[in-house]
Amino acid sequence: MKIAHLGIAGSFSYIAAKTYFPGAEYLSCKTFKDIFTAVESGEAEYGAVPVENSLAGSVYDNYDLLYKHDVYVKGEYDLKIAHHLLVSPGTGKLEERLKKITKVYSHIKALEQCDDFFASHPWMEETVYSDTATAAQLVAEKPDETTAAIANETAAELYHLEVLKAHIEDNANNYTRFVIISKQENHVTEANKCSLILTLSHTPGSLYRALEIFSRNGANLTKIESRPIMGKPFEYIFYIDIEFAQVDFNKIRDLIASELKTNTQTLKVLGFYHAARREF
Amino acid sequence: MKIAYGGIPGSVSYNAAQDYFGAKHTYIGYKTYHEILKSVSSGKSDAGLIPVENSLSGTIYEHYDLLNEHSVKVTGELYHKIEHDLLGLKTDKNGEARLKELKKVYSRPDALEQSERFLSQHKWLQPEATTDTAEAAQLIKKHQDISLAAIANKSSAKIYDLTIVVNNIEDNPHNITRFLAVSQKTLPRIDGNKASLIFIVSDEPGSLYGALAVFESYELNLTKIESRPVYGKPHPFVFYVDFEYGEEHKLRMDEIVAVFQENTSYLKILGYYQSVKRPV
Fold first, then answer.
1. B280 with A232: Cβ contact below 8 A
2. From B55, B65, B219, residue closest to A228, measured CB to CB
């Protein structure tokens, strides 16, 4: 079984793929679109794509791809994002080794999420790199006590780097939600979550009426997001997730196919699946 | 007036601030949005501009967090179209011949990604990441090397004395960022027709539906609704909402807010302001 992910081994998408499908084969993709194409063509059975981050927001690119491509959501995974300062293995006092570092490579988002660290270590120059894992790879290729990368623990292990300072992120509450995509619709006999993309007619209260269907039937809305449709003023596309732990799956599925369908202009059911367990 | 913006002259925030406030002010560039809001809330600057959403990359949760933390008020909104142009030093060559002289292209990672089509058609140009588009333009000017290019905008070309080698190399012309203008002083809501707010409801089926009832019963027009995932326990839901109101609502706004407050566990009205038309 092959799982498509973004970036090289050690990227966050790779970790999500590996945690969801341990012991599988992994296919590295350069762009999100490549992941979708790999899954659609059958080159990979599944793909792991990030759809939202608790600090940075929804990844519209991937919602667009979910809408356009003939793929379904099979499941989801919440990955905690941690940023560590990685260096070539060495010895010496922590403070002295930190003092020697002049260049820190990482993805722009990771650098931004470690603002406090850089404010207290002003001699380090932030250097933007395409992603965290390749930044780690770069540091590993040219061992030098003046360079460091900000990446995760998996990247440290894969590229034999030392975690010089762990958890240098400003905000510990940093999670990315990945969805697992597949070419086939998820034929489940039970599920407690559903993801939908829909558009509504431009009449007052149309959103409220659509939400009422869920509320009346005991399903809980866990995500809602409006996004303006370019070229169509006053029209919006909605991304919606519902969870229904206490309600029969078949009942919800029938409601979506009948009542919700008649109350929406367009409706794409991305999939029924099991919600990720949130133990944190 | 003193206006706080993100980055250096020629940055997208700088251009947006100039469009919104006009040229006859003192502009102060800050490295982070946290510093901008500190500058405005402390009275060091009279106003500031914060990007909150982009048509391609979505809502910027981190900036809503900052708006929630700082005691500033939203006084207006602005849509700014993002365009990417390829800039280089002025030489005696033009067009294709000038393009052939270039070897490296500097820009922000997302600007490089958004110019993917152009870069894949001109494979000899090697992309290099920087923290900002204006910084990339500044770098070209500093190095005085005719083989270097920047992906930035026309305003950066002017400021850093560069020539536009190829204009509008962005893949998608619908790249628009929405900014909110902030200041210490509140506008009287009678002058506005739109409000932005942050609210929290408890994690119970139907709680969001209950909170939204106020918009339905008062016939207010929701122009944005977005839930934000919150990790950890307890697990409340954070929402970002914009709504537009008419003359008939202005005198009843206290009553509307009171009803809304009853159905939410936290409510912060970011400001009342005059809406502008979203470009299509």
1. yes
2. B55
pLDDT value, residue B1: 94
- A280 Cβ contact partners less than 8 Å away, ≥ 6 residues apart: A80, B231, B232, B233
B185 min Cα distance to partner chain A (Å): 28
Chain A CB contacts of B213 below 8 Å: 208
Per-residue pLDDT, A278: 67
Q: How far apart are CA B206 and CA B256, in angstroms?
A: 20
Cα–Cα distance, B219 to B237 (Å, whole number): 24
Contact (Cβ atoms closer than 8 angstroms) between residue A175 and residue A80: yes
Nearest CA to CA, how far is B52 from chain A (Å)? 11
Look at residues A109, A105, A174 and name the one whose alpha carbon lies nearest to residue A146: A105
Burial class from Cβ neighbours inside 10 Å (0-12, 13-18, 19+) for residue A141 reads exposed
Given an 8 Å threshold on Cβ–Cβ distance, is A54 in contact with B278?
Answer: no
- Does residue B276 belong to the interface with chain A, where contact is any CB pair within 8 Å? no
Task: Report pLDDT for B235.
Answer: 67
Residues on chain B touching A204 (C-beta within 8 angstroms): 219, 221
B184: region left, alpha or beta (phi > 0 left; psi from -120 to 50 alpha): alpha
Averaged over B99-111, what is the pLDDT?
A: 95
Distance, in Å, from the CA atom of B112 to the CA atom of B100, rounded to the nearest integer, reads: 19
Separation CA A179–CA B30 (nearest Å): 36
Closest CA to B241 of B257, B258, B217: B257
Q: Is B56 on the interface with A (CB under 8 A)?
A: yes
Over range B122-143, report the average pLDDT. Answer: 96
Give Rg (Cα) of chain B. Answer: 22
What lies within 8 Å, CB to CB, of B250 at 6+ separation is B189, B190
Is residue B260 annotated as a catalytic residue, yes or no? no
Predicted confidence (pLDDT) per residue in A118-138, tens digit: 999 999 999 999 889 999 999
Give residues with Cβ within 8 angstroms of A234, minimum separation 6: A202
Check CB contact of A245 with chain B, cutoff 8 Å. Answer: no
Residue A279 has pLDDT above 60, yes or no: no
